[in-house]
Amino acid sequence: MALELYLDLFSQPCRSVYIFAKKNNISFDFKKLSLLDGQQYGEDFGKISLIRKVPALRDGDFCLAESIAIMLYLAEKFKTPDFWYPADLQQRARVNEYLSWQHTAIRMHGSEIFCLRLMIPKVMGVEIPEDKMNAALDDLNSSLKLVEEKFLQDRPFIAGDQISLADLVAIVEIMQPVGAGVDVFEGRPKLSAWRDRVQEAIGKELFDEAHQYILGAQESVKSMDSSKMQVFKPKILRLFM
């Protein structure tokens, strides 16, 4: 049985797994799943992942969830180049540090901007209070500042002179608010130069392929069925509590 990856490229973690597998010439069956259509709650997918989130991997009888775990599994199984997850103790520690930090920082803040700026007002027709939007932008800016000053500093990439899993995970998260029309690179020459290096290391064609859906989100939401957002209603309501 061929390796299967269950992905929705609107999802940042899915994009990182997709890019990693493609860049490393790992053969897989792309099982497209639509989160907005609620396909993660289907009976068949429940057999793949009880967590009911994407990305998910199936390799024969072995199933795995969570993007970081999946990429590490792929790196080990397919012996990908060392720079992705360096053997060097301190370089690997830098990668692990970023991967540990990002979940409750840039990932959370970028996702919030995407929802507040695009999904909620454009799809659900709910106006976002100005103070809520400003607070979310402040959080995002704080995380972006840490990416530059703490994680990049004066290095070309997070772990050193070559791209790593840390940079891959970072770029897909930072591109999420861009899809909502927030140019996070404006006025940030260091971050912009890093993005260009990451894009070059990945390859522009693959980079653009993986991000075409999120960068077209402002157009695609115009024809989106607002009823599909009802699955997210409890989470949305908590934003205003």
Strand line-up in the sheet with most strands? 2-1-3-4
* Gyration radius over CA: 18 Å
Structurally, the number of domains stands at 2
**Biggest beta-sheet profile:** 4 strands, mixed
Any idea what the shape is?
globular
Give the averaged pLDDT, no decimals. Answer: 91
Instruction: Please indicate the percent range of residues in DSSP E strands (runs of 2 or more).
Output: 5-15%
Distance between termini?
47 Å
EC number: 2.5.1.18
Family: Belongs to the GST superfamily. Theta family.
Domain GST C-terminal: 88-224
GO cellular component, one term: cytoplasm
Fold and architecture overview:
This protein has 241 residues and is α+β, with helices and mostly antiparallel strands. It folds into 2 domains: 3-80, Glutaredoxin (3-Layer(aba) Sandwich); 89-239, Glutathione S-transferase Yfyf (Class Pi), Chain A, domain 2. 56% of the residues lie in helices and 7% in strands. The chain contains 11 helices and 4 strands; from the N terminus they run βαβαββααααααααα. The protein has helices spanning 12-23, 43-48, 67-77, 89-102, 106-124, 130-152, 165-179, 189-202, 204-215, 217-220, 233-238, and strands at residues 4-7, 29-32, 56-59, 62-65. Helix 1 (12-23) links the parallel strand 1 and strand 2. Helix 1 (12-23) crosses helix 7 (165-179), helix 1 (12-23) runs antiparallel to helix 9 and helix 4 (89-102) packs parallel to helix 7. The model is unreliable at 237-241 (pLDDT under 50).
